[in-house]
Design a protein that fits this description.
Blueprint (H helix, E strand, L loop, with lengths): L1 H20 L4 H7 L6 H6 L8 H11 L4 H4 L6 H12 L2 H19 L1
Length: 111
């Protein structure tokens, strides 16, 4: 049971971070995610149990972050979120080209 409380605390902190980062509030984010208007607030206040996977998925989509960023001990830095957002807009071929270029660049800066 201790682990469940720990993960709930991590999720709460990450949601609070995302709310602040996006300049929104729990009610608005819940609406944008297709949840009841009190869903996020109730979780943050401890009135509801751990959010279900589909709730986390809706929140992740709403904030345009991968679901694992809600479960991670450290919130994803803004730059990584922006990079992921741009990456998602690329076609498959463009993604491969970008990945190849990034790997090449890493090789040059490491040597």
């Amino acid at each position: 049971m201790g682990d469940e409380r720990d993960i709930n605390q991590v999720v709460k902190q990450n949601i609070l971070h995302l709310l602040e980062q996006n300049g929104t509030n729990p009610s608005r984010a819940a609406k944008d995610a297709g949840l009841s208007h009190t869903a996020i607030r109730d979780f943050l206040m401890g009135k509801s149990a751990s959010p279900r996977v589909d709730t986390l998925a809706s929140l992740a989509e709403c904030f345009n972050v991968p679901i694992d960023s809600l479960l991670s001990e450290e919130p994803m830095p803004e730059l990584e979120g922006e990079l992921l957002q741009v990456f998602r807009q690329l076609t498959g071929d463009q993604r491969l080209m970008l990945l190849s270029a990034a790997r090449s660049w890493l090789r040059t800066v490491k040597s």
